[in-house]
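FORM 7B: Structural annotation worksheet

SECTION A. Query
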Amino acid sequence: MRRTDAAAIAVGIDRTGADAGDDDWGYGIGSLGDLGLDHVLVTWGEGTEPEPHPKRGIDWESALSAPRARNELEVTLADVDEVTLWLEAAAIDPGRELTLAVASTTDAEITLASRRGSLTVSVPAGESTHTVRVCGTAAGPPRLDVTRSDDARVFTGGGTDRVDVSVSASKPVRLRDRVPDGWTVLSGDGTERTEDGTTYVEFEPAADGAFTYFVEAPSGAGETGRDTFGPVEVRSHDGWEPVDGTTDTNVVLAPDASL
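SECTION B. Predicted structure
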């Protein structure tokens, strides 16, 4: 049971401005160091040290993907009047905000720190909430440039196409390229995967890199037509998201066929 004289601090976290790939946010409590957001600190009696325990029932990945998601993390401490919370390796786009809503039954201090400095806010006992907004840095939004090209636009049945995908990003990202029905992945960088009946070539995470793979055009009289590759997709907490400008339509000419 919770001690009535313990400091109860509820932290609501609005992660709208976070990079989709950031999954190492945490909070720190004294000598316990950095703990994951899926844990809660519990005290078992007067004079005992707080112990971290898993907090069940929170789907943090869904919380990340939900617009304006706000989840509460409850921390119970014994005889503590200063608490430090911090976020690691998090990026916030300019114009976006990170909100910490704090309520305390005793006097407490909340410290936000980053590479650019720190901010400490006093939360008097009995105050129901205190909100601190941290604006995005001037560094700008995460950078992501993806290009896609191939050998040609017209192929005979059974012809081979070379596909090149390049990426330049502010941090490593995972990409995949969609292969149209009927085309066969032969070799190259990446791993062939099938999802819901669609074939993809998925690449290892990279911040700056170039990938190449080879595919074979479908053959047979019934395969004449136009096939679209792409779009290239990037992995995020929302799932796979298409990258604009990365589709490509090729024409396949089967034997004795013309368009």
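SECTION C. Observations
The domain at 144-253 is CATH 2.60.40.680 (Immunoglobulin-like). The longest strand covers residues 160-173.

SECTION D. Sign-off
Analyst initials: ____
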